[in-house]
Amino acid sequence: MRQIINLNRKWAFTKMATAVPETMPLNWDFVNLPHTWNAIDGQDGDNDYYRGTCYYAKTLNKSELPEADRYYLEFRGANSIAEVFVGGKKLARHEGGYSTWRVDITEYLTENTLVAVSVDNSDGVPVYPQMADFTFYGGLYRDVNLIAVNESHFDLDYYGAPGIKVTPTSDGKTEIETYLTNAKQSQQVAYIIKDAQGNVVAETLGGEKAVLTVENPHLWQGRKDPYLYTAEAKLMEDGSVLDNVSTRFGFRSFEIDPDKGFILNGEKYPLRGVSRHQDRWGFGNALLPEHHEEDIDLIMEVGATTIRLAHYQHDQYFYDLCDEKGLVIWAEIPYISKHMPEARENTVSQMKELIAQNYNHPSIVVWGLSNEITMNGADADLIENHKILNDLCHEWDKTRLTTMACVSMCDINDPYVQIPDTVSYNHYFGWYGGETSMNGPWLDNFHAKFPTLPIGMSEYGCEALDWHTSNPTQGDYTEEYQAYYHEELIKQLFTREYLWATHVWNMFDFGADARNEGGENGQNHKGLVTFDRKYKKDSFYAYKAWLSDEPFVHICGKRYTDRVEDVTKITVYSNLPEVELFANGESLGKQQSAEHFFYYDVPNKGETVLTAKAGDCTDESLIRKVDTFNEAYRLKEKGAVLNWFDITEVPGYFSLNDKMSDVLRSEEGRALFMGIMAQAGIGAGAKAAGFEMNEGMMQMMGGFTVIRLTSLLGMTGLKMTKEQLLGLNAQLNKIKKA
Predict the structure, then answer these.
(1) Closest C-alpha among 425, 505, 492 to residue 461
(2) Could you tell me if 230 and 140 lie in one domain?
């Protein structure tokens, strides 16, 4: 029988080597896996994290390994190009940083064998992703195992797949395929299906394929009842088990209706949830099981029914957790932001790995073809690439549908939009320009024009840190504006039944080293929860109020204590029908709200203890009257040449503190700004925050103030000094507002 030995402990590691070592290096650092070399510099801003080739080395002693005919090294994730050397011999090269892959080392395994792995996360290579708004952490950041098997065994070479493929139908019919290496005529495969309690409910003997029937199958019902069965396959010879594999699966049916949305087992099951990146503060992408468990628990708490696992294949352990918890999953490859004609084969190989490795997960319902890939338009090669991927998905998996995430500027009439079975859009109206009210009508227009194509929202969100105000405005990075934004989006999206799925961007703040904004560089702060998972922002509870059945009440603004106004607005969220708010024990009244959001005008004198009650639930907060605004609550950019308070403002005229969209409405302002864009090389391949900048992108970012945008342009190479910025402000001070 196969044995799996974890090899995570004590690898020698270096950034300094230029070649594979011939002997075990004594002067390298020792690390345990999972490991990334960008856990710190990939999260601190300036887009200067180390991207290059690093080396890992480990000695295997054959006498310490179990006896077997064949030995495979299994890598669960090596970002992004890896090569394996055993005894100095190069045995494998893998391109793609997010999937499982294996290499047979049997012929080169001696008593003391040096295993060396080069891992390269350099840019400029035809491997996706190359441009995106997140950090491409390098390293052996998931488990490395040694798999010892018989000469005859279930396949270990085919796209990292598990060697067993289970296709169930909701009536209990179950087709199981296995893939054998070096099989003999004297061998058979024993197939067994067990229920969740471990009882055998179906079994048979056969070859590489069998069809079994489970009577009255217990369905996988999403969060309501995520029931799982286990399929086992044993390779038998003369009554002995030579090899064995198993996988969990679920009986379920689904459809996506363009008018009714997602339907699970014949019943409407709205998909309202979040997107998730796999990294976290101080760890990068080198996560431990407890990190995945904490993430899934937080997602369950908010009440989500779905996760978009962006923008790449995630850890198998996390897919397993999604199966167990009943979360419906969008799984995708990192074909993102910038189409590379020379990398078509890489999209194909990554899609094959994604499907082959994840076919058995009942949680997955759609394969994602790409994300925001039309940043610079959709040419013929891009369209052909998508058609190839779409056909591949349907050929390799007859049971699931395809989808993709379109960038907001993508014309809904573009033929590219019609390629997959379903489509979703990434819209940031209300953050990168436009107004929050634009989201729902845009979707209605799409649905009216293409009534047979299911439409969803794959990304929407805005950034929030520990900044606060009683007058939130677009682009201010306050927790209050993020809460307002999500209140508005919830009301628009969750009341539109036809949306096949909605996914908040993002469940957690995540590393984006190209970003220098919001006062904490190196992160995208659109999460409902902070990067370290320690703080749930108020917007987290807005979703919990709509999605969770767990009774609760939450007072917003707990980090916003000092307030200058005599009467201040207090927002309360609850999934219970009625809330009563008390100020220093005095009731301010009971309210009912079908929208789960309760708004109170609260007298602000001295110190006031606020207590909210809803059913048996209570929550407390504190506010304090102050004479002047507490500047600790106002955004100050880290490392900024200028901040808002350095800027001269002339009443009735523009300044650096005005929104770009407002400046562009003025003919003089537009001319001034287009000159800045030309100086920065906009339209000629300049990059900022991981994206290629063009006029369409600039228009989408109209919600930024001019000072914020000049900070972003700094990432294109246009570094403006304090004097230059003040000069620009002086020019804006001469342009009259309409």
Answers:
(1) 505
(2) no
Give yes or no for residue 691 having a pLDDT over 90.
no
558 to 78, 480, 535: CA distances (angstroms): 41, 11, 11
Distance CA 242, CA 180 (A): 12
What is the three-class DSSP state of 579? strand
**Cα(712)–Cα(702) distance, integer angstroms:** 12
Take residue 390 and report the two structure tokens written for it. 């779409």
Distance of alpha carbon 114 from alpha carbon 26, whole angstroms: 13
Compare 637 and 493 and report the one with higher pLDDT. Answer: 493
Spacing of C-alpha 707 from chain mean position? 29
Q: Tell me: do 463 and 593 sit in the same domain.
A: no
Q: Annotated catalytic sites, by residue?
A: 372
Structural domain count, the chain: 5
Do 687 and 593 lie in one domain? The reply is no
pLDDT at 683 over 70: no
Whether residue 172 is found in the same domain as residue 297: no
State whether 233 and 380 are in the same domain. no
**First-to-final CA distance of the chain:** 78
Residue 626 sits in the same domain as residue 655 = no
pLDDT by residue (tens digit) across 431-488? 987 899 999 999 999 999 999 999 999 999 999 999 999 999 988 999 999 999 999 9
pLDDT number for residue 700: 59
Do 540 and 573 fall within a single domain? Answer: no
Q: Where are the alpha helices (DSSP H) in 93-246?
A: none
More reliable by pLDDT, 201 or 716: 201
Among 520, 550, 580, the domain-final residue is 550
pLDDT of residue 637: 75
Question: Strands of 11-14's sheet, edge to edge?
Answer: 29-31, 11-14, 53-61, 112-120, 81-86, 89-95
71 lies in some domain:
yes
Same domain, 118 and 173: no
* Amino acid 647: pLDDT: 87
Q: Calculate mean pLDDT across residues 665-683.
A: 74
Q: With bands split at pLDDT 50, 70 and 90, how would you rate the model's confidence at 704?
A: confident
Asked whether residue 236 is assigned to any structural domain, the reply reads: yes
> Which structural domain range is residue 719 located in?
642-732
> Is residue 718 over pLDDT 70?
no
